[in-house]
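New here. Invent one.

***
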Amino acid sequence: MMVLWRVVRLPRNGGGVAGRWFFFFFFLPHPPPPSRRLRSPSQHAPAQRSRPAGLNPCAGLNKSSGGGEAASACERWQPDALAQMGWQGEMTSDCDIRNTVGNIPMEWYQDYPHVGYDLDGKKIFKPIRNKDELDEFLDKMDNPDYWRTVRDKMTGADVRLSDEQVDLVHRLQRGQFGDINFKEYEPYIDFFSSETMIHPVTNRPQDKRSFIPSLIEKQKVGKLVHAIKMGWIKPRKPRDTTPQYYDLWAQEDPNAILGRHKMHVPAPKMRLPGHEESYNPPPEYLLSEEEKLAWEQQDPEDRKLSFLPQRFSCLRAVPAFSRFIHERFERCLDLYLCPRQRKMRVNVNPEDLIPKMPKPKDLQPFPTTQSLVYRGHTSLVRSISVSPTGQWLVSGSDDGTVRFWEIGTGRCMKTVDVGGAVKSVAWNPNPSICLVAVAFNESVVLLNPALGDRLVVSATDQLVSSYEEPEEAREQPVQWAAPAGKEHDAGHRLHLAHPKAVRQVTWHSKGDYLACVTPDGGSHQQVLIHQVSKRRTQNPFRRSKGLVQCVSFHPTRPFFFVATQRHVRVYNLIKQELSKKLQANCKWISSMAVHPGGDNVICGSYDCRLTWFDLDLATKPYKVLRHHKKALRGVAYHKHYPLFASGSDDGSVIVCHGMVYNDLLQNPLIVPVKVLKGHAITHDLGVLDVTFHPSQPWVFSSGADGTVRLFT
């Protein structure tokens, strides 16, 4: 046996005691005989010897330091010599460890440039790893084993995983067992009861105590019986006869601050006294004798005040309050019996409640300024209409005259006296026909003003005079007559005598049909439709539901709009049936206008409302505007611009931007843009009718002051 020794001094910053010297002795056996050296290392696996990890007996020994015997002993410990001794596996694994810091946490040296100390007490510095991102990328591209290379924290070197190790990692990631030969679903073998044996496993006879009563149990039972007799033990507890009720709030702490604050609803404060409760109230708060009598006759629940206001000369003259106890009692009843409700207060920005509307200057053009005033009528002007060319304007007044104006100059071109208060005028919308329908009393007169193109004027006269009476005359509700003489020279072309007073006339877009409204004509003759070319009149309704206010034709489709006091009915003239019934949600409809597209309708009412209907959306109003202070008398759409206007008895005309989109999913945009004033209120009447210029963004208005005004 050979003995090796070494002296080691641990440094102060090492893992041991600073400044101490330690002696290590190694006892080496002699080399095994040749017969043992010829064996394979696997045969010596059970007999392998162990030694401390991290200690290399050959470290620091050479021929100069230890002598020849020690050097020869160290030579025996070299890998080649030890491999012959059967220590090949152990020496190979230990000698591969480059640093001998031991099994210590690497976090201790995380902030230091070294990773530990060797056997000589010298620092083992960390390997230099100066690879940047570019080097890492190049290594990833060039090195085919980059994906299977890991860094060893102990040695700091890059280790390439073998195929077996990679397969082990994949198996663990898939949740499988590490050993590939392990079978987790092997058939279960019941090795104990799978084979029935003839003889028992043990043939030992039973003990005597297994069939003899136990003496210890007898003593225990005797003690329990004695305790029951003495009353020390109650075998059954006596039942509680008192009824038990479930306490809903048993688990709640009545002193919990959070619960009391969470459920607390403060009582409403009493109303503060007003001037009527003063001992010297103002005179307007004192009741007269009639008011006192009416107050006494009312029920206590219907009285606004529960007491009579009284006046005293001074405060010391005020007597005691006789109802003090009663009032306090009622207050206590309110606090005790009246349920309280917590009102969730929503903090809303007032600006968020205002709809986001575009600025009016971005919606131009629209009329903003009064340009012309057409004067000449001596009474209120009820109706106006513009020619389809946009050059002429006709107005009808209660003074019995119909005046024709030139729009550009304001000059009155012609005046026709019809002999009665004119209720409605309507210019034929067909540019090839020069006819104006005038309604007054029980008659409707078709006038040819002879203005504009002479060819159109002569063609109109020829169209009216070319009528030939049919052989079989049908009975009609009105009488058609062609005037002659002075009336023909004045422009009268046809007279239609109705049984009752005519309130409104309106033309079809093609200019051949004329609709008249006679509200006093009974339930079966309130609406009449006349065909001028054939001089034929028809009554489309057998019976009208409600009092008809106004009618209108659809601009492009065969629909007919009839407005009663509270509803607007849409009839299909081809199918002769009711198509829709619009609910205006107002008390009394005064006027109506149909959008040029035909899918929207506006109605004005006497209760200061303007309702917009979207026929594709619903039968109820899409928008209700209440920007007028008094009754609305007239509404109108522009034929080309997205504008509509309304005139009211407050003397103002409000122009609104009403954009209707082709996209059916987008609702119309309604923005009030301008308030036009100029008419004087006469006999509580203001603006009576409004209409737009056919091609320009101009609006005309007629009022009770006898004037017609143009706003541009």
Notes: Residues 145 and 191 are 49 Å apart (CA to CA). Residues 2-97 form one domain.
